Amino acid sequence: MSAPKKVVLAYSGGLDTSIILKWLQTEYGCEVVTFTADLGQGEELEPARAKAELLGINPDNIFIEDIREEFVRDFVFPMFRANAVYEGLYLLGTSIARPLISKRLVEIAKQVGADAVAHGATGKGNDQVRFELACYALDPAIKVIAPWREWDLSSRTKLLEFAEENQIPIAKDKRGEAPFSVDANLLHTSSEGKVLEDPADTAPDYVYQRTNDPVSAPDEPEYIEITFEKGDAVAINGEVMSPATVLTKLNDFGRTHGIGRLDFVENRFVGMKSRGVYETPGGTILLEAHRGIEQITLDSGAGHLKDSIMPRYAELIYNGFWYSPEREMLQALIDKSQEHVTGTVKLMLYKGAARTVARWSDHSLYSEAHVTFEEDAGAYDQKDAAGFINLNALRLKLIATRNARVAKK
C-alpha cells in the first residue's frame, strides 16, 4: 500500500489512539484528521480536542460529533427488534457501535479528501474486523490503516516509552497504573485485560462502573412502564422520549437496581476465547420489556421464526457484517414482524433483575375468552382438540407400530 497523504483516525483521546496519531505522523508523514464520536460513553469529549491540538492537529481537522440519537435509533433499536443476543448472553454493545463509527469515518474521509482511515483496534480482537468490513462495504476503494498490525510497539512497556519520547500524556488510574481496557457507549460498558485476563479470578468490584452492586441495591422493588410502537420503545411511565433519551433513562433505572452485569467468556471471530465484564443496564431492561410486549402482540409462527434466525442475526453483528446483504434481508423480515408490536409493559426492577409483571395492547392477540377456566360462552369447543390430537399422533402411532413389528422378528 502506498503511503497515505491524509488519514481520518477514529480518535478517543486516550493513550492508545494518541500514540497512533503520533505514529501516523512520524511513520507516514501524513496529515491526520481526528474523529471522536459521542456515543454516550459518559465522559467529557472536549479534552480529546485539546489533546489532538496538543499533538499538532489543525483545529479544522478535529471532528467531535454527538451521534447518540442516530446510534440508538438506527442501530440499537433495529437490533433490539430482533432480541439479538450473542452466545445466549451478550447484548452486543461494542459490536453495534462499530458500523456507525465506520460510517462516519468514511463520510468524513470523503468530505476532507482523505485517502485513508485508521483505527486503534488490535490484531487479536474483533473490532479490527468490524471496522474494516464496514469501511470496505461503504467504500471499497478506501485504504484502512491498522497500526497494531504494522508497528513494532508490541508491548505495553514499548507503548509507554513511545508516549514518553513524544510527550504524550499518560493517564493513571487510582492504583497508579495505566487503566485496563474499557469501551463504553450509551448501550454498555465492556472491560477487558489486566485483572480480568484469568477467567478463574473473580472480577474486582472496581471494574464495575455503570451499575450498583445488586446486593446493596434498594431493598424495595421499583415498577416502571415502557410503551412501544412497532417494536421500538417510545415512552417511559407515559412520558414520550427520543430513542437516546429512552435508553439514558433506562440506564438510570438499571444503575440504581444493579441490573445488567455480565461476566462472560466469549468466542471471538478471530478464533480465541476472551473474558470480559459487561454492564448493559438499560439494554437488559429494554430486552425484557420488548419480549414482554411481543408475548401478546406477535403470532406464534412469526415469533418462533424470529427466535430461530436470531442467533444468525446476532452472529452477523458480532462478526462485523452489519452492512452485509444477509443482515439487511434478516432486518426486513424482523421489521415486518414488528408491525403490531405496540403497547405497554410493566416491569419490576429489583436486586439485579428486571421482570415483566403486566402487559397490555390494542394490538393484542391474547383472548381471555378462549383461555379462561370459567365458562367461555362457546368461544372454544374443547371437543375439537380430539381430532387435532389424533391427526398429530398419526405418524407417531405408525412409527410405534413399525417398531413393534420389527422387534418381533
Strand line-up of the largest beta sheet: 3-2-1-4-5
Instruction: Name the CATH class of the largest domain.
Output: Alpha Beta
What gap, in angstroms, lies between the N and C termini? Answer: 73 Å
**Which structural class fits the helix and strand makeup?**
alpha/beta
What is the level-2 CATH architecture name of the largest domain?
A: 3-Layer(aba) Sandwich
Radius of gyration: 26 Å
CATH superfamily of the largest domain: HUPs
Can you give the helix content as a percent range?
A: 40-55%
Topology of this structure?
Layout: E1 6-10, H1 15-28, E2 31-38, H2 46-54, E3 62-66, H3 68-81, H4 98-112, E4 116-118, H5 127-138, E5 143-145, H6 156-165, E6 181-184, E7 189-192, E8 222-229, E9 232-236, E10 239-240, H7 243-257, E11 261-267, E12 273-279, H8 281-297, H9 300-319, H10 325-337, E13 343-350, E14 353-360, H11 368-371, H12 384-408
Parallel strand pairs: 1-2, 1-4, 2-3, 4-5
Antiparallel strand pairs: 6-7, 7-12, 8-9, 8-13, 9-10, 11-12, 13-14
Helix pairs in contact: 3-7, 4-5, 7-8, 9-10
